[in-house]
Write a structure and sequence with these properties.
This protein has about 625 residues and is α/β, with parallel strands linked by helices. It has 2 domains: about 10-275, no CATH class; about 365-630, no CATH class. It is built from 15 helices and 13 strands. The protein has helices spanning about 105-110, 125-145, 155-165, 175-205, 225-235, 270-275, 290-300, 350-355, 390-410, 420-430, 450-470, 495-520, 530-540, 565-580, 600-620; strands at about 25-30, 35-40, 45, 75, 110, 120, 220-225, 240-245, 260, 345, 475-480, 480-485, 630. β1 and β2 form a beta hairpin. The longest helix has about 30 residues, at about 175-205. The protein starts with about 25 loop residues before the first strand and ends in a 5-residue tail after the last strand.
Amino acid sequence: MPLTIPREFKPFLRDGDNAITATDARSLAYDGQFVFTSPNMTFVPQLYDNPSNIVQARADGKFWAMDPFQWPQMYADAYTWSFTIPRREFHEPGTDLWYAWWSPVFSDDFEPLSPGHVFGKLKSTHREHLFRLYERANKRVGSYKLFREHKQDAVVGWVTGLRSVFERFKETLAWRDIVMILAEFQRRFLEIWSMMDYLEIFEPRLKFEDKNHGVNKTWMGCFTKDSAIALRLHKAGVPVWLIRDVRLVDNKVNIRQVVPFTPADLGPSDHQRQAAVRQPYLTFEEIPVDQTEVNRLAVSREPSSGKAPAKKMNKSTAYEPTALRQNQSQVGRDKWADVVHPFMPSINTFFASAMSQAEKDSSRVKPTHARMDEGYRLPDPGLFVNVLSSQSLKKYLANWLACRESWLKHVYVSPPSPLPRSQNWRDLLIMQPTPQPSSSSGQMPSGKTGKSKAKLGSFFGDELSLLRQFWTGSQILQWRGQKIEAATLENPPHRLVQEIIYEICEQSFRYDLLELDERLARHMRRDREARKCRMDLLRGIFPQHSLTMWDKDFSTRNDGLNAESFQDALAFFEKFRQVLIAWEGAPQDIKQPFTESMPEGEKWQHMKQCALFYVQSFYDNTGRPPVVPHMLYVGA
C-alpha cells in the first residue's frame, strides 16, 4: 500500500540535481510532532526511545534494538565512535566478519563431551572463525600502533581484553555460558573494529571539511537532534538521521522522498543504554584506560597536573576511549598515567591496570623515618619527553648516553645516598659544560645556585667529568654497538629513543624491585645461603636471569613479564609471585601458584593482582609512583 504523504510535505518534494545538505532530506519519515530526515540514506530506521531504564540481554546474549552493535542509536558524546560500528547485512554468511553477529544453535553448534552429555564445547570450526576475528583485530591495532605512533588510545588495551574473553571458551562447558561469552566477544570485537574505523577513516576525513565524502553505508550511523553534529557527520560520510520539530521543515528543505520507518527485527536508546550494553558479563576484567586523560579532554581541555585522583576506574568507564590525545610536551604530567608520546614505549598491560587502580591516598605512605629513599637510581623516563625544544632533547639524550655506562656500572653496587631526585637528573641532562676549565660540577645553566651545583657534584662526580670531556671533544656517542653523532639527536629516530627509554624503565624496575624486596623480605636474607637463594629467585623473574641488564642485548620480542601470551609469561609471573608472597601485607589472592591448568581468566586476574600489590607496596614505602615495565615491540 503506497505511503500517504502529508499535505505539508508535498510542495517541497523535489528531484533534480540540487545539492543535498545536512539539513535536507534524501529520505524523510515523520512521527506526529517530529520529523526524521537523512541527507545521505534512503531509509529511516525506527528509533526505539522507550523511557524504561531496564537493560536486559535476551536468551541469545543480545540486547535487541537497544544494542548499538545491532541498531542505530542517538549520538552520545561518551561513545562518539559508535556510528562507525559495522552493519551485519554487508557481510556474507560464513565469512570471518559475519561471525561478529552470528548466533549459535544448540542442536547444530554444540559438541557434548560425550553422547547425550549436557556439558560440552562450541564446535571447533566456529571457535576457529572467532579466533580469526581476534587475529584480525590484533593485526589491525598492531599496524595502527606501528604507523601512527602519536596515537596510543584505549583500543590498544582492548585487544588484550578480547583475547581474555576468547580464552573463556576453553573452560566453559554449559551452553548458557557459551552463549553469554560469545555475545561478549562479539561486542568487544565490534567495539575495536569501529574504533579503528573512527581513528583511521573518520578522523582523517575531518581534516577536509570543505569536501563532502561519499557515505559509508556499511557504518551503523546515528540519530541526532543537533544540526551541527549532523553537518559534521554528513561531511565525513557517516549515515545520519536528524530529528526536528515538524514546524522547522519549511520550503527551504530539499525533500527527495518520504518513507515509512524501517523497524528493527532484532528496545530503547540513550546514553545509559550505550553504557549498559558495554558492561562486561560477570567478572570479565576491566580494560585499562587512561581515565585522567579522558576527563582532561572532556572537561578542561588543559594539561593534567599533579597526581591522579584516588578514585578507581569503575566498570561504567571501562570502554571510554582516550580519544584525540595530544602529542605535546608532558608539562605537569601525571606520573601515575601512561605517557602518550611517540618516544615512549607502551606500558605493560598488567602494570597499566595496577597504576590506575592503586590507592593514592597520602595517609598510606609510611612516615619519613620508615620509608625508602624516594629518589631515582636512573633518570625519570618522562624527562625525555618533557622537553620544549629539539636542542633540549639533544642535550638530554647526549648527556645520558655519554655517562650511561659509567653510571650503570656503579649505581647497582654503591648508589649515592640519598638518591638523585627527578630535578637533579633534569639538571644533569640539560647541562652543557663550556670548553673552559671549571669546577667538578661543570658549567650549569644560568640561575643555578652554588648549593645546587655542589649537590649535583655529590651525586654525579665522575659523570660530570665525562660530560666535560664529551662536550669539549668529538661528541661521538656509543649505543649498543652503534656510533651516534650528537648533532643527529636534535631529530633522532623514534626507535632509538624508544630503546633508550625502554632500557631505563626496565632497569629502574629491577633496581626498585631489589630494594623493595630487601626492605619487605629481610627475614628471607638471614644468612649467606638464604640471600643467595633469594637473589636467584629475583633473577628468575627476568629472561636474562640478571638484575643488571645494561650490558645485555635486547630480546627480539617482548618476553618475561612483558610476554604477549599467558603461556610465555607464566613462569616469570610465578617467580614474581613467589617474591611478593614473602612481603609484609601480601594479599591472599596471590598465594595460589600459577599453573598451566589454571583457567586463563584466573591467570589474568592473579597476574593483575601481583602487579597491583607491587605498585601499591612501592607507593606505600616511597610516596611516589614506581617506574614499571614497558613493551619494546608492538604486537603483530
